[in-house]
Amino acid sequence: MELKGAALGAMLRAGFPAVDTAPTYKNEAAVGAGLQRERQYLICKVPRRASGAAEGTSTAAAQVRAAVAASLRKLCVQRCDLLLLHWPDRAIEDGTLGEVWRAMEAAREAGECGALGVCNFSVAALQTLLPLCTSSPPAVNQVERHPLCQQRALLEFCAAHRIVLQAHTPLGNGKAQLLQHAAVVRVAQASGLTPAGVLLRWNLAHGVAVAPKCSSTAHAEDVLEAATGTLAPEHMAALDAIETTHRFVNPPFMGAGAARNSARYSW
Fold first, then answer.
1. Which of 5, 24, 25, 94 is catalytic?
2. For this structure, is 265 an active site residue?
3. What CATH code is carried by the domain that includes residue 196?
4. What is the CA radius of gyration of the chain?
5. Percent with pLDDT over 90 in the chain
6. Per-residue pLDDT tens digits for 201-232
7. Owning domain of residue 140
């Protein structure tokens, strides 16, 4: 998100194995120019605007296929490795979730993507989606997750349904509320890690994949180092014990009461 060609190139040279993109990040062309196509695992997203009820003669399915084609064209690739539905609210509110998912399945059958998944789906939203999947249930659910937003029930539900949970915003967008939280700082001092390293290892120790963002070489090295090793049990327990709930990504359209049937998907 927001990274341009030079920063992306630096991250890829540092050894990042995957690139996470979306039309709403408004940089797909720059990402495409910086990709090392033979090496990176590429994640693309169906934007929220393409998943609702269409106007005129168009359909939600047509919007999805057009959005996927546009992303691949901008990225200068013929396929992505993982295609995610970015937000659940429009598709659920407009009753198009089944149509949208079948269009994503069609994209997979056409060779435009390798696997399918979702972003920002609650347990209720997943329970709505799963009966609608005809051939490809979601392999991944990418959601905000860190010690201030632990999503315990969602983690258990995804594990029970063999859905990989992937944490976006695992560093809280760099905000002090998370990186300077007393428990995080104590674990960092005791373990010899940076606060960012502590947060990433905490998610990985829970079996949660991470999609961190950084644009400096120093931060890249910190992120990659965190991919190895584990936290001591007492350090994990200290982070698990944090009861505060706070989201750093909290768009108004996902709030309770934001739509007529928001109870089915709201956070």
1. 25
2. no
3. 3.20.20.100
4. 19
5. 71
6. 999 999 999 999 887 888 888 888 888 888 99
7. 5-264
